Amino acid sequence: MKKISQAQQNEFSRYLDGLMTPAEQLEFESILAEDKLLKARFDELRFVQQSLLGLRPEQPSRNFTSRVMQRLNEYPAKSSGLSMRSGIFLLIGVLLAVGIGSVLISAGVFDSATTTLGLPHYAVIERLMKRSTPGIPFNGKLVVNIIILLNLGLAWLVLDKAILKPLFQRRMEAGE
Amino acid sequence: MTNDPDLLIIDRILAGEQSAYADLVDKYKSYAYTIALKIIINRGEAEEAAQDAFIKAYHHLSSFHRESKFSTWLYRIVFNTAISYKRKNRQQFQSIDNIIEYGAPDAEGRSEITDKKKYLQLALARLNEADRTALTLFYLEEFSLEEIAEITGMLANTAKVRIHRARQRLADELKIMLKSEALTL
User: Fold this and answer.
1) Is A46 within 8 Å of chain B by CB?
2) Does A18 touch chain B (CB under 8 A)?
3) Which of A150, A158, A151 has its CA nearest to residue A89?
4) N or C: which end of chain A has fewer CB within 10 A?
5) Beta bridge mates, A115
6) A85-124 residues touching B, CB cutoff 8 A
7) Residues A20-43 pLDDT 10s
8) How near does any CA of chain B get to the CA of A104, in Å?
9) How far apart are the CA of A148 and the nearest CA of chain B, in angstroms?
């Protein structure tokens, strides 16, 4: 089956937008008269064009202006970067991590995770200090506890910013 | 000295007369709402996005440099606000009552659905938001290609091509819909 090329489609647009010269228009119309497929496609596009020309703007609610004026001093407009749904998922994830961490700690998994992290030995530094580079003590239980505390802080922030605040804001607006 | 009434209102607002902003909101609210609705599709969210855009515009009024029309500047804010609303709420549940009434086919209302306008709205809803907005701006207020480009953040040539292609896609969608409707009759 014969297909209509993009160049031909562009010609349709030029005709419909009135961008053709009178001579070009006549030529285009004579081509259409001879080709049924092109004529059918042209009729479809002309129907779309005519329908689009009939588009009218939609009307917002009657109190639109008064609501904008009421809210003018409330700025920045609601702009929590996190949606409530994502907030709930994040909160569940954080609480799950805290729970797993707490269970592992209470099971004593990190009790033996204490070691000393050795620093690389540099002869020049050791000669200047006149002793070998000291190691850093590492306590796995302490690190996990800190991570749990940070997670609890994050959970509180997520709960406040992404869930409670938008919830109360919606209730206030609904009550207005 | 300027004779543009919008600029005179803006001068009054910047001088501290906040209530004058209501004149600008009244003047542009229907087009602002229509742009937001074409992007978001949901009436309630579109209204909220349009209101937020007006509030943002008010707070950034001093940064409007008057190089373009106030409406172009405002509609760009509406466009960006609606796009970010849509991204933020893409996953959220949409109440059926709030979704724009494009005339879902039903046994009783079938005669109404034969209305060309309803088909057009249904077909428009099937296009992507950029195509829908470009077509709406082009036909609704007869914005120039340069203004459409400025509002949607694309080049004028890109806007031109997008409008042409969107019109073709719209014709294809209408054809498919009318065919399937004919089969169900």
Assistant:
1) no
2) no
3) A158
4) N
5) A138
6) 85
7) 899 999 999 999 899 888 888 888
8) 35
9) 29
Greatest CA separation for chain B: 63
The alpha carbons of chain B give a radius of gyration, in whole angstroms, of 19
Contact A69 B21 (CB under 8 A): yes
Angle of helix A36-53 versus helix B129-140 axis, rounded to 10: 70
ipTM: 0.78
Top residue of B30, B85, B135, B167 to mutate, by most chain A CBs within 10 Å, is B167
- Nearest residue in A to B27, CA atom: A65
User: What angle is formed at CA A34 by the lines to CA A30 and CA A40, rounded to 5 degrees?
Assistant: 100
Q: Which of A105-109, A133-137, A171-175, B23-27 has the highest mean pLDDT?
A: B23-27
Name residue A114's beta-bridge partners.
A139
Q: CA of A11 to nearest chain B CA: how many angstroms apart?
A: 10
Map residue A24 onto helix, strand or coil.
helix
CA distances from A175 to A113, A129, A170, A172, B109 (A): 55, 71, 9, 5, 36
* CB spacing of A75 vs B51 below 8 angstroms: no
CB contact (8 A) between residue B22 and residue A54: no
Residues of B in contact with A51 (CB under 8 A): 116-117, 119-120
Q: For residue A58, which amino acid is it? A: E
Residue A91 is encoded by which pair of tokens? 């909160």
Buried b (16+ CB within 10 A) or exposed e, A27-64: ebeeebeeeeebeebbebbebbbebbeebebbebeeeb
Structural domains of chain B ordered from first start: 1-100 (1.10.1740.10), 106-185 (1.10.10.10)
Neighbour tally for A138: CB within 10 Å: 12
CA–CA gap between residue B91 and residue B98 (Å, rounded) = 16
pLDDT in tens, B70-127: 999 999 999 999 988 888 776 554 444 444 444 444 444 444 445 667 788 888 888 8
Shortest CA gap B1–chain A (Å): 28
